[in-house]
Design brief:
With 324 residues, this protein is an alpha+beta fold. The chain has two domains: 128 residues, Probable inorganic polyphosphate/atp-NAD kinase, domain 1 (Rossmann fold); 146 residues, Tumour Suppressor Smad4 (Sandwich). The chain contains eight helices and 16 strands. The strands form three sheets. It has a six-stranded antiparallel β-sheet, with helices on one face. Strands 12-11-10-7-14-15 form a six-stranded antiparallel β-sheet. A four-stranded parallel β-sheet has the order 2-1-3-4, sandwiched between helices. Helix 6 crosses helix 7. The protein is globular and about 55 Å long. It starts with 6 loop residues before the first strand and ends with a strand. The relative contact order is 0.15.
Length: 324
């Protein structure tokens, strides 16, 4: 082992993907002494984890958990001063239920294969595989310490994500099938206008304002704010303002949803006008609603009247991209 630990691995055993994979990962780490493995079960433990990891001066910080684990780690990495000016680049293993961040960074398939690739990369110069990713800083209730993430979902999207988490995941179905059933349930509600506890709820009214003084108000089947390169159906978002937040809002109409899905599939989302679909790049977004749920990388927030959610860009962090 070199003087500097090559990889620090932060794992959350409670992430869904880790229930089956963690024994293999522990065994792999035991056979590779240049990996420092630290496990946490609760978000409040991540601060202490970062303080300990900083002492071994890793070349790469690898996060093994779902999007919520990644978000909590990024928040601590961003707000804390554990590493000083030498923050290690971050890599994300494919784990958990959603893995939007892992997919954006090219981590797919077997987490052991990703670890093997990271060990190989850590033996060389990481500069060619390191990319800067802009982040979202979320503030609510006058909090000075922002929560850091890469993707925020709101309106009908958040309600459907929570419906899937609370109603479908407990059935024990494969992720792909669970997500498909949630999408079908959403389409049934929109097509027939059915209100039922067995279907996702109708999204509440939302008011969305940006620094550019534009304002959207109404019900939206999807509200998304992201710094990721991809949003829906692996379609790349348009836009030409690096470092800005990308806002996508789809009106609560079945036709608008279908047009948005087609635009995303053919790569035109954010690149051309689509009826019922709003796209904007901005450096500040305020969201206010009637107890409307917003999900930032797995953590749920509530946008209330008189107590809005504020989003701004956060300074970039370095990430290791495993695939082009």
């Amino acid at each position: 082992m070199t003087e500097r630990t090559r990889i620090a691995l932060l794992s959350n055993p409670r992430s869904t993907g880790n229930i089956a994979q963690l024994p293999r990962i522990r065994e792999f780490c035991a056979d590779h002494p240049d990996i420092f493995h630290y496990e946490v079960e609760h978000a409040h433990q991540i601060g202490e984890a970062m303080r300990t990891i900083a002492q071994v001066r890793p070349k790469v910080l690898v996060i093994n958990g779902g999007d919520g684990t990644v978000q909590a780690a990024l928040t601590e990495l961003y707000n804390g001063d554990h590493f000083g000016a030498e923050r290690p680049p971050v890599a994300v293993l494919p784990s958990g239920k959603t893995n939007l961040i892992a997919l954006d960074l090219g981590a797919r398939g077997d987490p052991i294969a990703s670890l093997e690739r990271l060990i190989e990369l850590a033996h060389g110069d990481l500069q060619s595989v390191t990319v800067a990713r802009e982040l979202i800083a979320l503030r609510s209730g006058g909090s000075e310490r922002p929560v850091i993430g890469m993707f925020l979902g709101g309106a009908g999207l958040a309600d459907t994500m929570l419906y899937c988490r609370d109603k479908i995941y407990p059935l024990g179905l494969p992720n792909g099938l669970a997500h498909a059933l949630a999408g079908i349930a959403l389409m049934v509600r929109m097509l027939f206008g059915i209100d039922s506890r067995f279907l996702p709820p109708r999204p509440p009214l939302l008011k969305v304002s940006t620094r550019k003084h534009s304002r959207l108000q109404g019900r939206f089947s999807l509200l998304g704010v992201t710094t990721l390169e991809k949003l829906l159906l692996s379609g790349e978002l348009g836009g030409d303002s690096p470092g800005s937040l990308k806002l996508v809002a789809i009106e609560e109409k079945l036709g608008s949803v279908i047009r948005a899905l087609i635009a995303a599939f053919v790569g035109k989302l954010g690149r051309s006008d689509v009826r019922g679909v709003h796209f904007e790049e901005t450096d500040e977004i305020t969201i206010e609603g009637e107890s409307s749920k917003l999900i930032l990388d797995g953590e749920t927030f509530s946008a209330e009247r008189g107590s809005p959610i504020n989003l701004t860009p956060a300074r970039p962090l370095a990430f290791v991209k495993l695939a082009a």
